[in-house]
Design goal:
It is globular and about 40 Å long. 23% of the residues lie in helices and 31% in strands. With 174 residues, it is α/β, with parallel strands linked by helices. It starts with 6 loop residues before the first strand and ends with a strand. An 8-stranded mixed beta sheet has the order 5-4-3-6-1-7-10-9, sandwiched between helices. The protein has a single domain, classed as 3-Layer(aba) Sandwich (Dihydrofolate Reductase, subunit A), CATH 3.40.430.
Length: 174
């Protein structure tokens, strides 16, 4: 491994009640959020769960995807997809790819179980706060307020649906 400091940023959109998904997809349409996701992830290794990967349906261009699954028989044959069976293995592989690719950041891209398992490794949250209670079946764990510090916020007025804010939270050093 390397001594290079690798940031690990969770990129997620969540409603006021913590909802992040419904029926295997996001329960809203926020084109600016998708543009932000692309800007934050392009060129960086991304860790995501198998269900999230399968919901997207394909590897995203110009990113290496590390898919975490407990299913030891699951595979995906693509040069930009790696399969791991634990979050620790996924973080190690993602860090190595980041170093190889000359970037200092790994993206945690969901779903809920991956955000939960990766929390001890996560140094930053790039959160889209959706300012509404949204019906969902998948929820983000609340972040312990004493471990995170808000460093940026941009409110978006959305005439087509719920308003939302782009928020950056950095882990407080212990």
């Amino acid at each position: 491994m390397t001594d290079q400091k690798i940031e690990r940023a969770a990129v997620v959109a969540a409603a006021a009640n913590g909802a992040i998904g419904k029926d295997g997809w996001m329960p809203w349409e926020l084109p600016e959020d998708l543009k932000r996701f692309k800007a934050l992830t392009l060129g960086k290794p991304m860790i995501m769960g198998r269900v999230t990967f399968e919901a997207i349906g394909r590897p995203l261009p110009k990113r290496t995807t590390i898919v975490v699954t407990r299913d030891t028989d699951w595979s995906f044959d693509h040069e930009n997809v790696r399969v791991c069976h634990t979050i620790e293995e996924a973080v190690e592989v993602a860090d190595e790819i980041a170093v190889r690719d000359g970037v200092n950041e790994v993206v945690i891209a969901g779903g809920a179980q991956i955000y939960h398992l990766a929390l001890p490794f996560t140094t930053r949250y790039e959160l889209t706060e959706v300012h509404a209670e949204i019906d969902g079946d998948t929820f983000l764990d609340p972040l312990p307020a004493d471990q995170w510090h808000e460093t940026a916020r941009q409110k978006i007025d959305n005439p087509e649906g719920p308003d939302y804010s782009f928020v950056t939270l950095n882990r407080i050093a212990s």
